[in-house]
Amino acid sequence: MEKATISMIVRDFTVAGLHEKEAMVDEIAKAVIANYPGSSYRIAVKEQYRNMKEVLDKNPEIVEFAVEAIRRAGMEPVRGSIRGGTDGSRLSFMGLPTANIFAGGHAFHSPLEWISRQDMEKAVSTIVELARLWEERA
Amino acid sequence: MTDTVLDRFLRYVQIDTQSDPASPAQPSTEKQKTLSRLLVSELRAIGFADAEMDSNGYVYATVPANTDKDVPVICFCSHVDTAPDFSGTGVKPQIIKNYAGGDITLVGDKSRVIRVSEHPELNNQIGNDLITTDGTTLLGADDKAGVAEIVTAAEILLKDKSIPHGAIKLLFTPDEEIGRGVDKVDLKKLGARFAYTMDGETAGTIEDETFSADGLEISITGVAMHPGFAKGRMENAIKIAGEIIARLPHDVSPRRHRRPRGFCASRRRDRLDGKGNDFHDRARFHRRWPP
User: Fold this and answer.
1) From the list A8, A36, A86, which residue is nearest B216 (CB)?
2) What confidence tens digit (pLDDT) does each residue in B214-234 have?
3) pTM passes above 0.90
4) Min CA distance, A40 vs chain B (Å)?
5) What gap in Å lies between CA B291 and CA B289, rounded to an integer?
6) Do B169 and B226 share a domain, yes or no?
7) What is the pLDDT of residues B161-199, one digit of tens each?
8) pLDDT at A6 over 60
9) Which domain covers residue A129, as residue numbers?
10) In chain A, which among 68-97 make CB contacts under 8 A with chain B?
C-alpha cells in the first residue's frame, strides 16, 4: 500500500477564500506526513469554475432588469446564490454573461419533486416582462 | 387552441431524458434528442422558422425583434435532461388542484410523502394547482419547467404585437446535470449578448452568484514492505490519507453551512498497490452538494 490519492473539491465565494482553504489542506497534509519520515505527498490544484458574479457585476443591468421583471410579474424578488456550478457560470466565463432565474420547481432530483402551475405561469410572465424591459431601456 | 405552460410541462416530463455521466456520447444519451426533436417541431409549428437541433443535440430558435430600437440580443436557456440520481422512466405526473395544505402522500409509493415540515414552501401554495410524481420517478421540473416556460413565453412574444421586444434567442441544452451542458454550445451561432437560464427554484428568485471551485488532488507515497519485515518500517499510504481526511476541520465541511461560507469536501480514491491486488475505490465522501 505504497500509494494513495485523495481527490477533493474546495469551494468558496471568493478566490482568496479558496486559496486560504487550499493552504489549510496543505498544512494538514504537511503535519501528518511529518510523522512518516519515509513518505511524501504532492498537492495538485486544478481550477474547476469561478463565481459568475465577477462577470455579471460588469453588466449590472442583467440582474437589475431581472429584479424589475420579477416585480412586474407580481413577486417580491429574492437575490440568491447557487451552491455549486451552473451552466450560467460556465456561459458567463465563455463570454455570454448569464444569470439564473427561478423555474418554480422544488426538491430537484428526487421522487418528492413538485411544482405549481401558478409558479410556472409567473416564470412565463417574468420572461415576457424581461423582454419588454430590455426594449424599454434600450 | 394554444397550449398552456402546464400542457407543455406535462407533455415534456413524460419523455425520459435522463443523462448519463458514464457515457462518452454527445449528447450522453440518445433519448434526450426525443424531447429536443419535439421542441423543434413545436417551435416550427408556432412559427419559429429557424428552429433547429444541431448535430450535438442543442436546440436553437429566434423570436425576431418587433421594434426599431437597437436592443441587445438576449437569450433564454434551459436544459432538457434530467438528473442521473433518480429514474426518469415512465413519469406519471399527478395534479393536485386547489391544494388545501398538508402533507402529500404519493399514490404510487405510499412510503413517499412530501411533508410540509420538510418543504415549508408548500405553505405559499395554498389554492394553487400542484404537480407531483407518483413516487416512483423524479418529476423533471428541473428543468422541463424552464423549457415549458420559455416556449410558452416565446409564443406570447411572437404573437402578441402589443409587446415590443428585441431579438430573443432560445437555447435548449442537453447534459446539464452531468456538467457538460455548455461544452458544445455554439455561441457564435447563438449570437446573444446576455442570457438567462430558467433553472432556479422558488418563484421570485434571481441568482447571480455561485461558488468558485478548485479540484485538489493529494498524492501520497508511503513505504511498501512485506508484512514479515514491516514492523517499524512500513508506512501505509492509505492510513496517511485517512489521517489527513480525519484532520480536515468539520466546520468547513458542506453540512455545516448553508451559505455564504465555503467548504472543503473530500472524495476518496485509494489505490492498493502490490501482490497483484490493484483496484480503485471510487466511493465519495460527499457524493453531491448541493444534494
Assistant:
1) A8
2) 889 999 999 887 767 666 678
3) no
4) 5
5) 5
6) no
7) 999 999 999 999 999 999 889 999 999 999 999 999 999
8) yes
9) 53-136
10) 70, 75-91, 94-97
Specify the amino acid at residue A84: G
How many domains does chain B contain in total?
Answer: 3
Q: Does B23 lie in the same domain as B76? A: yes
ipTM value for the complex: 0.83
For residue A71, give the H/E element and its range. Answer: helix A61-72
Would B242 be classed as within a structural domain? yes
Q: A100 with A116, same domain?
A: yes
Kindly state whether residues B124 and B223 are assigned to the same domain.
no
Task: Tell me whether residue A93 is exposed, middle or buried, using C-beta atoms within 10 angstroms of its C-beta: 0 to 12, 13 to 18, 19 or more.
Answer: middle
| Nearest alpha carbon to residue A84 among B7, B133, B289 | B289
| Partner B contacted by A34 (CB < 8 A) | no
Asked if B241's CB is within 8 angstroms of A2's CB, the reply is no
For chain B, the first-to-last Cα distance in angstroms comes to 40
Query: For residue B34, what are the contacts with CB-CB under 8 A and spacing of at least 6?
Result: B15, B16, B17
Contacts of A48 in chain B (CB under 8 A): 213-215
